[in-house]
């Protein structure tokens, strides 16, 4: 499930990250105190994939941000799940080491739908949010829309990610 020609999540990501955390006094980068985000994009059945993933992640619990009975403890790395997200499973757990990447548009529309114990990030495909391609100044209405969505997410303590944006430095 997490293997491809001898490569797997644990060998390529979790073990090397764990080695770095041990070498840097509990942080991925020496002197950087915030958690580094490890995004895992689930492409198949969310519940079955998450069950298998949770077993692997649990071996690295000591370095991961965790949720335990209503409390979030920040570790060196925060695992954020995207794609086919097992929202109901995570929401029902009293102890876990993974969080969800929420739809940025949902966060801005209905802040009551956001559970900050489940969501740590809100994302959106760039073209669903904006049509500005980086040529000329950003249209005022699009700038205002972007600021409104990002502002709401930040007020809720959620990080923001726009993906598949135009490949221009100005964007």
Describe the protein.
Helices cover 35% and strands 25% of the residues. The chain has a five-stranded parallel β-sheet. Strands 5-4-7 form a three-stranded antiparallel β-sheet, with no helix packed on it. The model has no long low-confidence stretch (mean pLDDT 89). The longest helix has 16 residues, at 140-155. It is of the alpha/beta class and 171 residues long. Strand 1 and strand 2 (7-8) form a beta hairpin. The protein is globular.
Q: How would you classify the helix and strand content by structural class?
A: alpha/beta
List the secondary-structure elements in sequence, H or E: EEHEHEEEHEEHEHHE
What's the count of strands? Answer: 10
Shape: globular
* Distance between the amino and carboxyl termini: 36 Å
* Low-pLDDT segments, ≥5 res: none
- Rg measurement, Å: 17 Å
How do the strands of the widest beta sheet line up side by side? 3-6-8-9-10
Task: Please bin the fraction of helical residues.
Answer: 25-40%
Mean pLDDT: 89
Count of DSSP-assigned helices: 6
**Strand percentage:** 25-35%
Major sheet summary line: 5 strands, parallel
Topology record:
Layout: E1 3-4, E2 7-8, H1 9-23, E3 36-42, H2 46-58, E4 66-68, E5 71-73, E6 77-83, H3 87-92, E7 95-96, E8 99-103, H4 104-109, E9 119-125, H5 126-129, H6 140-155, E10 159-163
Parallel strand pairs: 3-6, 6-8, 8-9, 9-10
Antiparallel strand pairs: 1-2, 4-5, 4-7
